[in-house]
Amino acid sequence: MTEPLRLGTRRSTLAVIQARLVADAVTRASGRAVELVPMSSAGDESAAPIASFGSVGVFVAALREALARGDVDLVVHSYKDLPTEPDPRLRVAAVPIRADERDALVTRDGASLPEGARVGTGSPRRAAQLLAARPGIEVVPLRGNVDSRLGRVGELDAVVLAMAGLTRMGLVDHRVTPLPVDELVPAPAQGALAVECRVDDAPTHTVLAAVEHEPSRRAVTAERAVLAELNAGCTAPVGAHAALVAGELRVTGLAAAEDGSAVLRATECGPPDSAAALGRAVATRLRADGAADLLAAAAVADIADPRGVPVTGGSA
Ligand SMILES: NCc1[nH]cc(CCC(=O)O)c1CC(=O)O
């Protein structure tokens, strides 16, 4: 009898839900049993704000080490939390069908934001775009898992969270208003999962190919090419969104000053099989408009002013 595949997962509620989703999809599509192996990571145990870690991908490092060592056969990440730098020991064997990629505003009663509203988010990308669109608001730094951030609504007028996390956790209700992607450009790869295995593990790769969704892979490839070409990480004020429109891939990128005082956008359309090139072309146009200076200023602000916010639990 074939051994079950071992899937390493963080212990947060959302991570376990995402791991189960992939495990079930793999078993359904391939007949292969998959067992979950819960693990801890440095990011889950730290109370420091994410910007102060100084490097992206803190939540994925421990899982990747366990996978590279052979303790587990596959791991599942929120794709937007993966550094753009590839890990030569591993490969993204599958990108399953993507969930809702939009951000959402969660308010007390689903109403729109009052003048001078206090809005919680720890994301420079969300902060910049909210401040640019609604200059009267105050952005309150915030991190922690989805539940703890939701718990701040009441004391705050609103918090911003990804629809994907809320949906997967069954938390979408009348208080949740999705924001259109052209109003708040999502994080590159938001809503998508990355299923990794060891680069030389061909049998597992073959099994995981059963849950690959090519349109999702293409969109994510284009969006992450924007981020990589700007040399930016998952905490930079950079957004990217790709969608199939009339058979073409339409890729939008955004780079902003963290205070919302400047917002750059660029869009390119082209054949879906040139996803990465389209993403790079978007980044090149953002760069030509001054994106590098905006992002350098945002990075300096993060170091000078690490946001000290008490948290309970890890990030989503
Ligand atoms: N950085 C936190 C994070 N990483 C992945 C998700 C869930 C959404 C997704 O899978 O893209 C979230 C929570 C959030 O941004 O609200």
Automatic annotation (TrEMBL):
Cross-referenced HAMAP family: Porphobil_deam (MF_00260)
GO molecular function annotation: hydroxymethylbilane synthase activity
Free-text cofactor note: Binds 1 dipyrromethane group covalently.
Domain Porphobilinogen deaminase C-terminal, chain residue ranges per copy: 219-287
Coiled-coil annotated residue ranges, if any: none
Cofactor(s) the record lists: dipyrromethane
SUPFAM superfamilies, per database record: Periplasmic binding protein-like II, Porphobilinogen deaminase (hydroxymethylbilane synthase), C-terminal domain
Keywords assigned: Porphyrin biosynthesis, Transferase
Top EC group: transferase
Function: Tetrapolymerization of the monopyrrole PBG into the hydroxymethylbilane pre-uroporphyrinogen in several discrete steps.
Top-level taxon of origin: Bacteria
Subunit structure: Monomer.
Pfam family, one: Porphobil_deam
Matching InterPro entries: HemC, Porphobilin_deaminase_cofac_BS, Porphobilin_deaminase_N, Porphobilinogen_deaminase_C, Porphobilinogen_deaminase_C_sf
Something else known: The porphobilinogen subunits are added to the dipyrromethane group.
Gene3D superfamilies from the UniProt entry: Periplasmic binding protein-like II, Porphobilinogen deaminase, C-terminal domain
Protein name, entry field: Porphobilinogen deaminase
